[in-house]
Every structure is written in structure tokens, then in C-alpha cells.
Write a structure and sequence with these properties.
The chain has about 400 residues and is of the alpha/beta class. Helices cover about 30% and strands about 25% of the residues. It folds into two domains: about 1-130, NAD(P)-binding Rossmann-like Domain (Rossmann fold, 3-Layer(aba) Sandwich), CATH 3.40.50.720; about 135-295 and about 295-335 and about 370-380, Dihydrodipicolinate Reductase, domain 2 (2-Layer Sandwich), CATH 3.30.360.10. About 45% of the residues are buried. The structure holds alpha-L-sorbopyranose (SOE). Alpha-L-sorbopyranose binds near residues 13, 188 and 274. It comes from Cohnella cellulosilytica.
């Protein structure tokens, strides 16, 4: 059994998801490689100490620079706000560490390219955190498309809808600060459906977009006294602060392969909690997936006899389905946290075997290019080419 020491930078929502996954990759996958939760890093000492205790880390530290240069660290896992991804990832790669980074990879495509160059130069394994690729139903969709079940792809339709900002009393946070997050639901949520679109359909060539901030001011956030990850906070209306990101962002896309795409991300879709839904229509069939029923994949085939044509709902829990062999008997469904287990199992397996994997920093760079092109299009009110800066 090969053990690899991990340094996790960041300790909030993603810190918790990653900690859980690191504990469970070897338990379920038995790939001959085991992550060791060595040190968790954060700037606020009492919070990172609490996270170390809660999530079972051997040590905690407050200075990521010192940690990424430690000789006993093999892997640096970045789960911090977007603004710090580039600096940490480049330092980690230059120190020879394998790097995992949460999405979106960077504030913009230029930063993403620098991260990719550093990782390639250092010859380390690099992976980007788009956990939804590791949902078994999505991996099955990929296989069905590769097997030609959809024929020529005509449409990709993706929405990612949440409602945690519907309440104007929900306070500001780093996710509502453009200087720290880069954008609002565009980089937070559209990045996920762009990743699924690139994975399942291919590269995007041109985009035209729109966005809007409906609630321009929110209660100022008080000193971060508690570990967060909870999306029901209440603020004080007597001290308001500007919101500098959009509440909603949508765009149309033309894929290089000829398909048409529509994308919509919002945090103001009342009643929608984590409603990430995609539908792909081709000349021979349709696939549809909604994360809120993540163990199911809908498939309609034009090749079925006409009298029994209709959507079939595939319960993706059979041994023959991607990832399921590591989990439970048929019908014993898996959940959100398990997508992170699948993701880290693939990451540590790639490190152990010395192979690459996707999504990597190249995918992150391409994703950031699409995000940037939409932003340019919103400013120019015109179609923009993804590669045409
Ligand atoms: C919040 O909008 C969030 O946690 C995103 O940051 C995640 O990437 C998404 O998967 C769930 O929602």
C-alpha cells in the first residue's frame, strides 16, 4: 500500500467534502494507494484548528507557503476562494507536488494558462474539481454518446439553478465579491455545466451572453466566526454593502462540432436548491440528467420500435455502470459526497500509476476561456469567439 501525504488548503464547504472523500477513497476503491490527511491550512487559527478536529487532520497550519514546501507533503489540494488558486497551484507545482484545484480553475484564462504551464513543466499530476463528471449517470451518458447512441448531436441544454440568495437578508460573502470570486453564478455554476458540455459534446466556439444583478446591496458580513458551508445565514440590514457579482448569467453557444447550446445559471430560482439539469438531443436519441435525482439517467431512443418508444429512466446502480462496482448492490443509491470519493479515487490512482486524467488544468484553461468569452460578449453585446481575444 502506497501512502501519500496531503495538504488541504481551505476548510469550509469544499474542505469538508474533500476531507470526507480522502477518508473513503481507499475504503471503497482499494487501488493500492491511500491518501493521508496530514495537514489542513487556513488563515484563521481557531477556525482551522476546529476544522482539523472536526474532519480528522493530523495537523493544522496557517501559512500555506511553508506547507507546500514541506518535504513530507506529496499532494496539495486547493479548496480556497478563486483569487488564491493561481499562486498556490504554481508554488505547489514548482515544489514538485501533485495538485488538485477546485473550480473555476482561475480568475481568467490567462491565469489558468500560467497554472497549466507550471504543472506541465513540473510534470506533476494536476486535476480540476468538477465532481459532477464523477456522477455514475454522467459517466454512463458519456459512454452512451461514445457508443453512438445519440447519433449526431444537435442540442445541449444546461441549467444550474439555486435559490440561496433569494432572501435579500442573506449577507455578502466572498462569493459575492468579484475581486475574490471572479464572478457570481457564472464562474460558480456555469463553469460546471460548461465542463459537462465540453465533456459530453465537445469544444465551444462562439457565445453570446447576458447577466443581471437583481439585489445590488446586502447586509455586510460580520467577522467570520464560524465554519460556514451553510446557505441560510441572516445579516443585519442596517449595514449594507454593494454586491459586485451578477445574480444570474445565461448564454447561447455554438459548438465547434456544429451543435447549439443554451446555458443558464442563477442563485435566484426560488425552490431550486441544486438543480443542475442537462439534456442532449441527437439524431438518434436524447439523454437527460438532473443532479437532484443523481442516480437516474433518462434515455429516449429513436431506434426503439415505435409502439414502445418513450423515455426510459435508467437507475444507474448496477455493477456494469461506471464506479458502481466500488459501492453497493443494485438499487442502493449513492449521494453528493460520493462523487468526491469517485473523483479522488481517480486522482490518487492516476498519481500512483503515473498517468494523466481529466478534467485537468488544460480543461480548466478551456473552461475559463468560455467564461471569459461570455463576459466579453456581455460587455460588447455581440457574439464572441472563445479563442478570439
Ligand atoms: C454553491 O453555489 C455551490 O456550492 C458551488 O460552489 C458548487 O460548485 C456546486 O456544486 C454546488 O453549489
Amino acid at each position: 500500500m502506497r501512502e501519500l501525504n496531503v495538504a488541504l488548503i481551505g476548510y469550509n464547504f469544499m474542505g469538508k467534502a474533500h476531507s470526507y472523500a480522502l477518508d473513503n477513497t481507499d475504503f471503497f476503491f482499494k487501488n493500492g494507494v491511500k491518501p493521508v490527511k496530514k495537514v489542513i491550512v487556513g488563515r484563521t487559527e481557531h477556525l482551522v484548528k476546529q476544522a482539523a478536529d472536526n474532519f480528522g487532520w493530523q495537523e493544522y497550519a496557517t501559512d500555506w507557503r511553508e506547507v507546500v514546501n514541506r518535504g513530507d507533503i506529496d499532494v496539495v489540494d486547493i479548496a480556497t476562494p478563486t483569487i488564491s488558486h493561481m499562486e498556490i497551484a504554481i508554488a505547489a507545482a514548482q515544489a514538485g507536488k501533485h495538485v488538485f484545484c477546485e473550480k473555476p480553475l482561475a480568475m481568467n484564462a490567462e491565469e489558468a494558462k500560467r497554472m497549466l504551464d507550471a504543472a506541465r513543466q513540473a510534470k506533476v499530476v494536476h486535476m480540476l474539481g468538477h465532481n459532477y463528471r464523477r456522477v455514475p449517470a454522467i459517466a454512463l451518458a458519456k459512454k452512451l454518446i461514445e457508443d453512438g447512441r445519440l447519433g449526431e448531436i444537435y442540442h445541449f441544454r444546461g441549467v444550474y439553478l439555486q435559490d440561496w440568495l433569494l432572501d435579500p437578508n442573506f449577507p455578502t460573502s466572498w462569493k459575492l465579491d468579484r475581486k475574490i470570486a471572479g464572478s457570481g453564478p457564472h464562474g460558480d455554476l456555469n463553469a460546471h455545466i460548461i465542463d459537462l458540455a465540453r465533456y459530453l459534446v465537445g469544444e465551444i466556439d462562439q457565445v453570446v451572453g447576458m447577466d443581471k444583478t437583481f439585489i445590488a446591496q446586502r447586509p455586510k458580513v460580520q467577522v467570520n466566526e464560524q465554519l460556514s458551508g451553510n446557505l441560510t445565514a441572516q445579516g443585519d440590514q442596517s449595514q449594507l454593502q454593494e454586491v459586485t457579482v451578477e445574480d444570474a448569467a445565461a448564454f447561447l453557444a455554438k459548438f465547434a462540432g456544429g451543435a447549439l447550446g443554451t446555458f443558464e445559471a442563477t442563485r435566484l430560482a426560488g425552490g431550486r436548491k441544486n438543480h443542475e439539469r442537462i439534456e442532449i438531443n441527437g439524431s438518434k436519441g436524447t439523454l437527460a440528467f438532473n443532479f437532484e435525482a443523481m442516480n437516474e439517467l433518462e434515455f429516449w431512443s429513436k431506434e426503439d420500435p415505435v409502439e414502445i418508444q418513450g423515455f426510459r429512466k435508467i437507475l444507474v446502480t448496477e455493477d456494469v455502470h461506471p464506479y458502481i462496482g466500488a459501492w453497493w448492490p443494485p438499487g442502493h443509491i449513492i449521494g453528493y459526497e460520493n462523487t468526491f470519493v469517485n473523483q479522488f479515487a481517480d486522482f490518487f490512482n492516476a498519481i500512483n500509476k503515473g498517468t494523466g486524467l481529466t478534467p485537468d488544468f488544460h480543461d480548466g484553461w478551456m473552461n475559463n476561456k468560455v467564461l471569459d468569452a461570455v463576459t466579453r460578449s456581455i460587455a460588447s453585446s455581440k457574439w464572441e469567439r472563445v479563442d478570439g481575444e
